[in-house]
Amino acid sequence: MSAGCSAYTGRFAPSPTGPLHAGSLVAALASWLDARAHGGRWLVRIEDVDLPRCPKGADQFMLAQLQACGLLPDEAPIWQSQRGALYAQALARLQADGWAYACACSRADIQQALAAQNALPGRHAERVYPGTCRSGLGGKTGRAWRLLSTADLAARRDLTLAWQDRRLGAQTQNLSQAVGDFVLQRADGLWAYQLAVVVDDAAQGISDIVRGQDLADNTPRQLRLQTLLGLPRPRYLHTPLVLGENGEKLSKQNGAAALDLSDPAASLRAAARHLGLHLSGATVGEVLAEGVEAWRGFMMPASPLAPGSGIALKE
Q1: What integer pLDDT is reported at residue 5 of this predicted model?
Q2: What single DSSP character describes residue 231?
Q3: Is 61 part of any known ligand binding site?
Q4: Is 12 annotated as a binding residue?
Q5: Does 69 carry a binding-site annotation?
Q6: Is 14 annotated as a binding residue?
Q7: Is 47 annotated to bind ligand?
Q8: What is 97-185's CATH number?
């Protein structure tokens, strides 16, 4: 399933739920610069696993936006919607090993169970699954598949994971308490992001994942799946977020406008400024070339591919 991680391979993996916006360009540029600064490869993956949320043609429009900004992948993009067989193979392994179990709970069931435990999450907080179906379905029909978030199958002790982020530094999370047993395949049959991204990162040989800080708390789930599936662990770098006027992450759901690419070089300079790079190139080519050199200037003295090394990004 894995192509290994001996050489640098990075990726930009957008969900085609609408056009790229300013926050998307920051993430795309950061991953591209990191790959080029390391002399590595840069790939694009269209994460359209949630097809009902992906308008027709949005993927091609996003690819055209990247092309206008000079961010060209080294291989043809892949689409997650075409890779279900690989995800099914991974799920079958987790089922066979006893880590995945069927869940009959609806969202209303989970909400009711959490309310009974006085454990309803706050705004934007994770809804921790209460483990209702861990011991069986009680005659109900399984709707989804979940992964046990425990350190072992027998005693089912809490599992705490630690990792080193290239910007955020040392990180830890008690996966059992912070997330709980998370979904691998949804009740509607669609594949969950966590499983799909881990399978695809391994299959594409991704060595370094550079993405927005809002995805940092996804990392422990992905690390756990990598371990259980016997896949290599990439290095991670989470970049500062672009915020909307309301102080929340700029996103399509938050009213983010599509990128204005009437002047792609200006858009790239603006994205670079958010990463702490103050570039002056007049053309796309000049901005990108200058950006690679500036990104190298942020490198720590240690080997750029050594665990924990990376870039001292400015907020």
Answers
A1: 41
A2: -
A3: no
A4: yes
A5: no
A6: yes
A7: yes
A8: 3.90.800.10
